[in-house]
Amino acid sequence: EELKAEKEPRPDPRPNGRRDDKAEKPRFMFNIADGGFTELHTLWQNEERAAISSGKLNEIWHRRHDYWLLAGIVLHGYARWTDIQNDGAFGVINEPFKGEASKGNFLEMKNKFLARRFKLLEQASVIEEQLRRAAYLNMTQDPSHPAMALNTRFAEVECLAESHQHLSKESLAGNKPANAVLHKVLNQLEELLSDMKADVTRLPATLSRIPPIAARLQMSERSILSRLASKG
After folding, report:
1. Which end of the chain is more exposed for a tag (fewer CB within 10 A), N or C?
2. An example Gene Ontology cellular component term from the record (predicted)?
3. Using N-to-C axis directions, what is the helix angle for 221-229 and 106-136, rounded to 10°?
4. Are 64 and 30 in contact (CB under 8 A)?
C-alpha cells in the first residue's frame, strides 16, 4: 500500500506555488464478493469495528491481514505458513500473535489459526468465482422451481406482517374494524406458514435432484482454484 502511494502522482501545486504538506493516504480496499454465502463479511465487520475502536489495526486480525495472508500464499505457495511468517514483507500477519508468544504451543496454535482462516478465504473465493461464472453464463434461478417456493412464501409472510403491524395496537385500543382485519391477516399468515411447512418437508428430495454447482458451471473445484491462483 505504501509503495502504491509513492508511485501515485503528486497533486498539482496550489495557486501560490506550494504543494499540500500532507497527501491523503490511499484507502485500503480489498473484498471477496461471496454473496453472503459465508460468514466472512460478518467477521470482517466485527473485527474492523474492534480494531478501529481500539486503535490496534495491526494487533487485531481483520481484512488487511487476510489480504497479506493471500498475498503470501500467492508468493510462497499453498499452506507454506512458516515461509510466509518468516518473510519480512508479510510481517503484519505476525502482529496479532505477539501476545501469545510465551505459550508452549504457540507455533501450532498460530498455524492452525492461519489454516482455518485461509480455508474460509478459499471457500469465499471459490463462491465468488462460481457467482462470476454464473453471471458470465447468464444463469438465473427459475422462479417456478419448487426450491424457490419457500423463498417466495417467506417474502409474502414478511410483507404481510410488516404492512399490518399497526393493527395489533389498533385492536387493543378497541378499534373493531381493525380487529376484524387483524383476524383475517392472522388467518392468512397461518395458511402461509402451513404451506411453508409443507415446502420444507419436500425440500430435501427437490434439492437432491438439482445438479451440483460445478456441473452447472461446467467447472470443477480444482479448475476454479487454478483460475484463482493463476496470475493475470
Report:
1. C
2. NuRD complex
3. 100
4. yes
* Per-domain boundaries in the chain: 39-137, 146-217
Q: How far is CA 144 from CA 131, 150, 151, 153, in A?
A: 21, 11, 11, 12
**Is the model's pLDDT at 149 over the cut of 80?**
no
Sequential DSSP letters for 55-100: T-TTTS--HHHHHHHHHHHHHH-TT-HHHHHH-GGGGGGGGGGGGG
Q: Which amino acid is at 192?
A: L
Cell of 13: 501545486
Query: What does the alpha-carbon distance between residue 197 and residue 157 come to, in Å, rounded to a whole number?
Result: 13
Contact 69, 84 (CB under 8 A): yes
Placement of cell 406482517 in the chain: 161
Vertex 129: Cα angle to 150 and 122 (nearest 5):
95
d(CA 50, CA 43): 11
Which helix (H) or strand (E) segment is 225 a member of? helix 221-229
Q: pLDDT tens across 64-102, in order?
A: 999 999 999 999 998 899 999 999 999 999 999 988 878
Is pTM, for the whole model, over 0.85?
no
Closest CA relative to residue 71, chosen from 89, 45, 96: 89
Write the secondary structure of 115-184 as one string of H (helix), E (strand) and C (coil). Answer: HHHHHHHHHHHHHHHHHHHHHHCCCCCCCCCHHHHHHHHHHHHHHHHHHCCCHHHHHHCCCHHHHHHHHH
